[in-house]
Amino acid sequence: MSGGLPCSAALVAAASGLSVSPTGSSLIGLAVPGVPYNTLVVACGVAAVGCAAGVVGSLALLRKRPLVGDAAAHATLAGVAGAFLLTGRRDLVSLLTGALVAALVGLGALVLVRRVTRTRDDAATAIVIGGGFGLGIALVSGITARGIPGGGGLEHFLLGHAAALTADDARLLMAVSAAAIALVVLALKEFTLVAFDASFAAATGWPTVLLDQALVTLVAVMVVVGLPAAGAVLVTALIVIPPVAARQWTDRVGNFVALAGGCGAAAALAGVIVTSARPGLPTGPVIVLAAACFCLVSVVASPRRGWLGRTLRAAAERRAWAAGLLLDTCLRAAERGDGTFTVADVTDGRTARTAWRMLEHEGLVERLHEHTAEGRVPRDAWRLSGRGLDRARERRRRAADWAAAFDRAPAAARERFSLDLPECAIATDAGATRAT
Amino acid sequence: MTDSATPSAAGDRPEPLVEFHDVTVAYGRRPVLWNVDLVIDAPCLFGIIGPNGAGKSTLLKAAIGLVPLVGGTVRFAGEPLARARHTIGYVPQRESVDWDFPVSAFDVVLMGTYGRLGWFRRPGPAERASARDCLARVGLADVADRQIGRLSGGQQQRVFLARALAQEAAIYLLDEPMAGVDARSQEQIFDVLASLRAAGRLVVVVHHDLRTAAEWFDRVALIDMRLVAAGPTATVLTPDNLRRTYSGQVELLREVGLAVAERGRTS
Amino acid sequence: MIFEPSKCEPDPGVPARRRLIRHAVGASLLALAIGGGCGRTGGDRTASPGGTTRPGVVRVVATTTVVADLVRQVGQDRVEVDCLMAPGIDPHSYKATPRDADRLAAADLVVASGLHLEGRLADLLERLGRQRPVVSVGDFLPRDRLLFGGPEIADPHVWFDVSLWALAAPVVADALARLDPAGAAAYDAAGRAVAARLTRLHADLAERIASIPGERRVLVTAHDAFRYFGRAYGIEVVGVQGLSTESEAGLGDINRLVELLVARRIPAVFVETSVSDRSVAALVEGAAARGHAVTLRGRLYSDSLGAPGSGADTLEGAIETNVAAIVAALGDDPAPSGAEPSARAAPGDTR
Fold this sequence. Notes:
Chain B is an alpha/beta fold. In chain B, 38% of the residues lie in helices and 22% in strands. Chain B has one domain: P-loop containing nucleotide triphosphate hydrolases (Rossmann fold, 3-Layer(aba) Sandwich).
């Protein structure tokens, strides 16, 4: 395998200014003490792929087509088998060329199916995945059945072997990844525009179809280049998973793309570190697992969008609102009576009792005591403390302000109203000098 | 200044700002617009009025190239669309966007400046200042950094208007900018459009509400698959024309008649 | 939307379309039923268990080239051997095609290597076993001479200990004799001859391997196919991928092996004809980075024999070729890497 790469890799490496030494003993003049050579090589290669796949995948996710990578990857099997049948050779260049052609054809078919038959995106993707892969398996089985020499194990091409990256492989991966990332950074505003509002882009004269094709080609190239090293499954996983993880942490496009790349690289490095330390664990699959873990953690625990954060926040909102209502109820109860009330007067149900505990905890209500012969004995009577009274009255005033604002200027009120009842700052109508 | 259903005479007159000539649009065999001839000569606030499904939005979409023409041409100051794109600002209806997209209101408005920048150039301080200014003009300066999904309906509509403003176009085409927007925001939007007209731009608005149309627009075109009438508002919004366009909606006609009369009295 | 009768006509196409669909579905179901039935009856017609179809020739289908070679040597001209897998095919991941199923169904006897070497054919062979004789030679070998990778997971590469494989010859002779009693004597004699040949080879191999200096006597290959070889002939074997090519070596495994290569100063590693040599190339580079030059030598025959005419199309030929390569590479002063053009991976060649 490594025999076929030196030409292309040397060219690419020379172009990118990396040192190419015959024994591959220094990848880029770096040797980290204490880190085995193979670990370093694999780390560089896979981190590069992870970063670029994450970046390219984030664009695909924005464009609502995260599975194009999958479609490309499955189509490559047909290309690899076809290239072998056509040329009779198994050298890397012809197989990868076949894979690239098949990937592009598959993606072209995807676009065609979507447009001409008006099929939905996911259905069209499934058609290409199934059809491409099926064709590939058929060709491979045909090759095996006819006993064509050298035709065994073509489908293993799709699996790749991340731990067996050679220096040449790693250099190629780094070069292609750098080029892909550079292209995305250069045209980020164009890609974002088309992903966000394609009709606006078209209306203002941007070539939407060309940009879509460029993105799709980037994906195909990433998949094909990553095939021998990391395999189809790993590359497509890194195209899909890190962007989903990254999306949970930021609401800005630039940060999103960068974070997706970072997450991909981090997953790759995590996989490399774990499998380097423990024999018996396959590197590629562990990388995918690491990415999946990051994604799971992000989806659950991200403070902004994560499930946990949202659930906790919603619960906190409910509790705060219930406490506010209870405070108001206490105030009214106090005004009705002699300033005191019992717990039973103001609470009913579990939610109210939780709210009551909040009020107690903040010292907004205080218990009354009797002075008897035994000393201070608590009575079953409560009142609002000084702070509690202030708080309750303040809340009542603000609620009234908002109610009035809704009467006067409903649109503005609707825009600014919030459950934590801020100061209502909506001006009265011009000409009226009523104080609020 | 003539707005009529017949093409203007050739000769030494300057090219009209927008000219629809014999425009026919169909979805399959069903025509949506049929032989529409409309000429808009000069900058003004131009309303396109008609019942639901009359093809008003389609007229704009045909002008901007989003739907194909079965027949006819659309020219902007004599130029075809491909050459005139940079002078046209189009504000579509709201639905076609993903509200979960990770962009803020400011980012969306900034996209309006991309046309000026060309390939691979990043927006610089001038573009950012322009975007902030446009946001301020539509009254959204204080929510500039909020993600668009967290804005109210009226605010979202104004973001897209601000984006069009950022394009600094000569001709604005707006598709139902007031749909689903509360009265106060509508007033705000109208103020912005009026300021555009004052600055010498042509503003073409597809509008659904006859009553406000009568108040706001200088000239209108009545569309119901074909052009019923076009010209100054008072001239066009006659009971006869309205009956031909909105067959059978009597109450509406009465209201509009009152509004027109009101305008005639105050202008 | 106002309903206007004049614009709405009943669509005459609809009922006609439904009829057409029903016909098409019915026709395809019918075709499937007929086709399925045909397949089965076709298979049953050509072979009947317990007797030969053409007097004097037993039709045997063997799974791997190694087993096919054994059957040919025992059966000689009384059998016609058809081998499922071509030379160079990896038996661990081989999946049967419908044509293979036909060939198997048309056989009088099916011989497999057994011990889950043909991992993906297990179900098919089991089903077949209910209809015609299927012999998995590995199952007949004495269990105490098998190597186990884990509880109940036997290493299936038994043919590399030729003295053990010699025990398979009488098994095949026996199976053939039951099918073709007329030739029982011939089969028995041939079986014995094969066993004797293999036993002689066994001694010879042991001697040749012993000629390699002790500390260099390590065989590093792509997958763990040579454990029996190692045990039988006194050479340490290390495979990158483990017992089956279906598993994948991780970085830890690769690092560990590089460590081994460097520490023991092993001069050569070997690639296999039926397995990708990617992992082995990485080892070579890793060792080179630590200043120890390891060469990639010899395409060893592991799970498959060579093509007819290569000299390695019999088990003896293949093992002799292997041992010659091993001794040349690991023995005193291995030849410089340029001198063995067939051994080094040809430029541009890949797996």
